[in-house]
Amino acid sequence: MNLKQLSLMLDLSQTTVSRALNGYPEVSEETRRRVADAAKRHGYRPNPSARRLATGKAGMIGYVMPTGASVDIDPHFVEFLSGLGDYARAHDLDLVLSPADARDEETTYRRIVANKQVDAVYVSAPCHGDKRVALIHQLGMPFIVHGRSEGLDFDYPYLDIDNEAAFHEATRLLVQLGHKRVALINGDDTQTFAIFRERGVRRALAASGIALPPVLLRSVAMTEENGYRAARSLLEQSEAPTGIVCSSLIMALGVVRAVRDLKLTIPGDLSLIAHDDVFPWLKPENFSVPLSTTRSSIRAAGQRIAERLAARISGLETGARGEIWPVDLVVRGSIAGAPV
Amino acid sequence: MNLKQLSLMLDLSQTTVSRALNGYPEVSEETRRRVADAAKRHGYRPNPSARRLATGKAGMIGYVMPTGASVDIDPHFVEFLSGLGDYARAHDLDLVLSPADARDEETTYRRIVANKQVDAVYVSAPCHGDKRVALIHQLGMPFIVHGRSEGLDFDYPYLDIDNEAAFHEATRLLVQLGHKRVALINGDDTQTFAIFRERGVRRALAASGIALPPVLLRSVAMTEENGYRAARSLLEQSEAPTGIVCSSLIMALGVVRAVRDLKLTIPGDLSLIAHDDVFPWLKPENFSVPLSTTRSSIRAAGQRIAERLAARISGLETGARGEIWPVDLVVRGSIAGAPV
What are the residue boundaries of the HTH lacI-type domain, all occurrences included (chains A, B) (predicted)? Predict the structure, then answer.
């Protein structure tokens, strides 16, 4: 079935059908739904080149990918990308990854905007007062931030999970279980997610008059090895923590190894809760002692970002809408009352 | 410094300088080197848009990314992508990921070729008689296969690691240590890398008159959980293996967990060797018992694929060159003589 046949069948002009399928705002919601249903039922898929000509869009979502010898893209990225890809495939969008020098992403942002290679971009791993967000806002290309940046003097569209609440709840549970020395093994603390998580931990502890002294705080790149080193250094000090909240499952692997090497046990000597982005290849319920987690699917976030970018490209979404997802706290065998 | 200034300084025409920088074959190697040196010394970088206009190239490398609810892109992909990005950044190339229905990648290949979105593509995870390789060969777009496909009736350019030799050497070492029951926990055995690995294991065993019976062979998606399940089922049978060769580090995590749950030890009861793609976030030397590995950096492979694709785009590389990298066998504490 082609556009002409579909239009005849629906008794609509080809222009209207095309606009409905491409999400133009001037088509009513009812017509859009009617057209979409018919297209789906009869297996009509618009030819992307024709669509591009008709809409003046590239049909591409962009991402500026920081690279360099010192930059390790971590496995979170691939799960996020899977989600983005799920949506993009169903909507004939491609993703353009523009590798950039991690010390100078600005040049690359300016280039992709100037070249009109993509219709919209997403920005990930934002930090406080993130310059990339300010730049892309100023350059006027549609964008969404995955995460949030504080300290900017304008509003912008974003999708984030509630990192502060997640780590607040996790820490509060440990405090309720009698833990007084709770440590945080965090990711890179120049990034907003890490700032928010630390804030959540501090707030939960402060509610019971407990502090988070520097000796109970680590901020490191999220590898197994760093998790191990952080846990060893925490557990070998005289005032060792009885509870650890940890920013990634991969670091938690290292924590578990450190606990074993020190001949300690989970949860007897140490209660452990880690953040789980829901990787299909590594599951917290399969840890030797099933791991309690704060859980949020980063793949689902990728899908949603793609969906919102598509809506921004077509004009269905405008303005600076922030969307914050709640995070599950999933209790498994790795936590128990504080040792006496 | 702009193109004109660079040309004046070198006493060459702008056309020659431009061609030299863009790797046209008609420029002599000496001139190319002279121009590249001067450009580097004076910080000249060609404007990508201008280059695109001049060369008729999109400046983009493509990858058709299979997606769908049942498709898990695994963390190998992100390391490969990092390597590809390292090279691409330095050469102003972008990567276009075109998500495709995993059951119908052909449509997407045809689309990206028809739309001239990219100058070249790479194909990954090839299987026997891979249809995508046959298709892209027929469509006439420059490409390189990461891995190899047997059973095609034409030659094509590829980059692969020597999977057969790697698993042959690993298995031979176990046999030399006295192991007679060696099991293989492999990846998806429709893929060439897995076929080659199995071949290497069989050949090493056969050289000592040992067979690889079906009860000592597993072929599964490479997750921690599948590694655990495979190892448990292998180790709980009456004729349990004393040695395991395993196709990924993530599956090896599961093997180690199974060994612990069964109250066995490595290497006392079981010798273990796994393939290591060199992830920065999970290192075999950090396993509770340091893990012996067959090692090859998938990030380096990504860099090399990008380099060769760039060479094919500019015409510097032509023909069906196959490149096979040797694989290191790295011995650590996880192997020992067979238990008596």
Answer: 1-55
Nearest of B180, B62, B67, B195 to residue B121 by alpha carbon? B62
Touching check for A24 and chain B: CB below 8 Å? no
Domain ranges of chain B: 60-161+299-325, 163-296
- Strands (E) in A136-291, as ranges, are 143-146, 158-161, 182-186, 217-219, 243-246, 271-276
pLDDT tens per residue across span A168-193? 999 999 999 999 999 999 999 999 99
- Split at pLDDT 50, 70, 90, the class of A325 is very high
3-state helix, strand, coil in chain A (%, to 5): 45, 20, 40
Neighbours of A13 (CB within 10 A): 10
Q: pLDDT at residue A250 above 80?
A: yes
Find chain B residues with C-beta within 8 A of A49's C-beta.
114-115
CATH class entry, domain B163-296: alpha beta
CB of B61 within 8 A of CB of B88?
A: yes
Taking the domain A60-161+299-325, which CATH number applies?
Answer: 3.40.50.2300
Residues B286, A257: contact at Cβ < 8 Å?
Answer: yes
User: What length is written for chain B?
Assistant: 340
Res. B49: pLDDT tops 60: no
Per the model's pLDDT, the better-predicted residue between A20 and A271 turns out to be A271
How many Cβ atoms are within 10 Å of A213's Cβ, its own excluded?
10
Predicted confidence (pLDDT) per residue in B5-21, tens digit: 888 888 888 888 877 87
Record the pTM: 0.83
How near does any CA of chain B get to the CA of A31, in Å? 28
Beta strands in A68-169 (DSSP E): 94-101, 120-124, 143-146, 158-161
Q: What is the pLDDT of residue A33?
A: 85
Q: Which of B86, B98, B257 sits opposite A94 (nearest CB)?
A: B98
pLDDT, mean over chain A: 91
- C-alpha span between A191 and A258 (Å, rounded): 26
Q: Are B60-161+299-325 and B163-296 the same fold in CATH?
A: yes
Task: Give the type of residue at B41.
Answer: R
> With contact defined as beta carbons under 8 Å apart, do A159 and A308 qualify?
yes
C-alpha R_g of chain B: 24
Q: Which of B97, B122, B248, B298 to mutate to test the interface with A (most CBs of A within 10 A)?
A: B97
Range of lowest pLDDT (A311-315, B115-119, B162-166, B173-177): B115-119
